């Protein structure tokens, strides 16, 4: 018990020191609250919410044909309208408080003074974010009287109000973390503002269709609610009462939404702390553990949400789509993980440096290949485990002992795992080579992204000129399908019919693609020392 108490006290003291005693929080909040804009925004925020409630109440009374309709859930309708109004306003207000957190310091030439303080990069980033979050909480608290009116009119309980505010607080946390994240990566405020609003507003609109799907399926006797249908905060009133089934377990939608938004926000905040100018912070372990946990959690939520599989082919399509999404996500993140300053020890071979397992959870790019391999293995294991969990629950067919079913599970899945590992390792190796060829990390990441675009799209464009039974595909040009990561996925899931006839059969596609990307990895690692000796590689920023 003494150990637990000591850990609890240490964590609480750290949080108090990082948040309440943080001079950045005090300075930012004091500066903001001394300006008239803060109170003008607060007044306009409450006034807009009151107008929305008044208009919705008038609309409800007009539909009922009387001044009061006790048989209608007037409070719930007002509650939903107020939720939409607050979600939209917060989406536009809070990013404006954080997208200039670091870029403004750079433009005003005060970033050097901030760097000279004894504050750690984590405290600086957290101070910028928490000051904006506190203002968002003030805005939410100012609308409590409006929310209480909804309770008085009936149709909604105080518990639903509490869950609604919890969802909006998680949304505020994500918005502020996103603004700080882009501000730490950019040099100019204009670029940071465009990226911040592009990502937050884009996310808001992209998640709207899933919210409408939730409102249609969240009915008695309806289909299972999609697990990610509650990500849009505008549907907070629906989220607070809706549930979904994941691997046969009932999970509230609000829990998925809150955990995901807070998890992603923490990840963005940790990344921001590593990009504070003139300040170095080693956060690779925390960032990579959060990233791995996020991937595993999303796989469990998305795959476990499947409720019906009518045939073996539907299972094959599910496997192909899931493997493709895992591969694409890991490869995109590898652009950042595998690029940086190459720093092998004197006399150490570059291949030994690139395969440093002890650096897998450090910011040194020597651990990039081991980390992406571990990440891929853990993610794929989570996918297979979730698939094994849901198959007895969702497959209504009786041919589970048939040969196609066994081939898909016990032959195709191991083959696809081999392909995934080879592709992500090759991508990381290309990142190491790019880091040895250019002097800027952003340029190196851009080169890796260009490699991925060519790998995933070039052969797909070539297939547009293919006509089954007419086009001759025995030439060397068509054999480049071995470098198309999508090809073995299509072959193992039975989707290669009508595609080019190559030097190998569809059952051997996984061997061709794995060998092709292993050659890319070996060639990249072999060329990296010479490229570094000639060009110098990425330098410290």
Describe what this molecule looks like in 3D.
- It is a single chain.
- The protein is mostly helical and 541 residues long.
- It has two domains: 13-281, no CATH class; 303-541, no CATH class.
- The chain has 21 helices and two strands.
- It has helices at 2-20, 23-33, 36-64, 74-98, 103-107, 111-116, 121-142, 144-152, 158-185, 189-206, 208-217, 236-239, 253-273, 284-304, 312-337, 350-354, 368-394, 403-437, 441-462, 486-492, 509-535, and strands at 243-246, 249-252.
- The protein has a two-stranded antiparallel sheet with strand order 1-2.
- The longest helix has 35 residues, at 403-437.
- The two termini are 46 Å apart.
Instruction: Supply the number of helical segments.
Output: 21
Question: What is the mean pLDDT?
Answer: 85
Poorly predicted tracts of residues:
none
Q: Order of SSEs, N→C? A: HHHHHHHHHHHHEEHHHHHHHHH
Counting structural domains, the number is: 2
- In the sheet with the most strands, the strands line up as 1-2
Give a nutshell description of this structure.
The chain is 70% helix and 1% strand. It has helices at residues 2-20, 23-33, 36-64, 74-98, 103-107, 111-116, 121-142, 144-152, 158-185, 189-206, 208-217, 236-239, 253-273, 284-304, 312-337, 350-354, 368-394, 403-437, 441-462, 486-492, 509-535; strands at residues 243-246, 249-252.
């Amino acid at each position: 018990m003494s150990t637990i108490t000591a850990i609890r006290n240490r964590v609480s003291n750290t949080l108090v020191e990082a948040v309440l005693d943080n001079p950045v929080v005090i300075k930012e909040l004091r500066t903001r609250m001394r300006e008239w804009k803060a109170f003008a925004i607060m007044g306009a925020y409450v006034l807009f919410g009151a107008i929305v409630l008044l208009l919705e109440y008038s609309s409800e009374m007009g539909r009922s044909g009387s001044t009061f309709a006790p048989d209608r859930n007037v409070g719930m309708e007002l509650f939903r309208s107020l939720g939409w109004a607050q979600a939209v306003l917060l989406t536009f207000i809070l990013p404006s408080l954080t997208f200039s957190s670091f870029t403004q310091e750079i433009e005003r030439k005060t970033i050097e003074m901030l760097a000279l303080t004894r504050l750690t990069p984590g405290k600086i980033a957290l101070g910028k974010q928490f000051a904006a979050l506190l203002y968002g909480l003030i805005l939410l608290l100012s609308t409590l009287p409006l929310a209480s009116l909804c309770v008085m009119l009936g149709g909604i309980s105080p518990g639903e109000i509490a869950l609604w505010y919890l969802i909006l607080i998680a949304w505020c946390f994500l918005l502020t973390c996103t603004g700080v994240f882009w501000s730490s990566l950019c040099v100019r405020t204009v670029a940071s503002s465009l990226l911040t609003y592009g990502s937050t507003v884009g996310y808001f609109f992209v998640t709207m269709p899933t919210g409408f799907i939730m409102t249609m399926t969240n009915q008695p006797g309806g289909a299972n609610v999609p697990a990610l249908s509650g990500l849009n905060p505008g549907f907070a009133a629906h989220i607070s009462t809706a549930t979904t089934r994941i691997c046969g377990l009932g999970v509230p939608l609000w829990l998925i939404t809150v955990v995901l938004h807070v998890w992603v926000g923490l990840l963005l905040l940790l990344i921001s702390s590593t990009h504070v100018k003139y300040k170095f912070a080693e956060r690779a372990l925390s960032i990579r553990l959060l990233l791995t946990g996020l991937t595993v959690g999303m796989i469990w939520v998305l795959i476990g949400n499947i409720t019906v599989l009518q045939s073996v082919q539907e299972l094959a399509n599910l496997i192909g789509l899931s493997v493709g999404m895992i591969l694409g996500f890991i490869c995109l993140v590898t652009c950042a993980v595998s690029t940086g300053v190459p720093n092998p020890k004197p006399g150490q071979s570059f291949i030994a440096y690139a395969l440093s397992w002890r650096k897998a959870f450090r910011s040194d790019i020597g651990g990039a290949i081991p980390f992406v391999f571990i990440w891929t293995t853990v993610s794929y294991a989570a996918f297979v485990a979730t698939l094994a969990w849901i198959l007895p629950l969702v497959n209504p067919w009786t041919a589970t002992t048939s040969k196609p079913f066994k081939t898909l599970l016990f032959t195709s899945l191991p083959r696809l795992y081999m392909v995934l590992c080879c592709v992500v390792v090759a991508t990381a190796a290309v990142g190491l080579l790019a880091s040895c060829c250019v002097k800027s990390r952003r340029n190196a990441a851009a080169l890796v992204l260009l490699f991925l675009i060519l790998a995933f799209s070039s052969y797909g464009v070539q297939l547009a000129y293919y006509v089954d039974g007419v086009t001759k595909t025995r030439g060397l040009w068509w054999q480049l399908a071995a470098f198309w990561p999508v090809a073995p996925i299509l072959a193992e899931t039975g989707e290669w019919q009508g595609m080019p006839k190559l030097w190998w059969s569809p059952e051997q596609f996984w061997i061709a693609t794995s060998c092709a990307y292993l050659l890319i990895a070996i060639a990249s690692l072999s060329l990296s020392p010479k490229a570094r000796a000639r060009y110098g590689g990425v330098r410290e920023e």
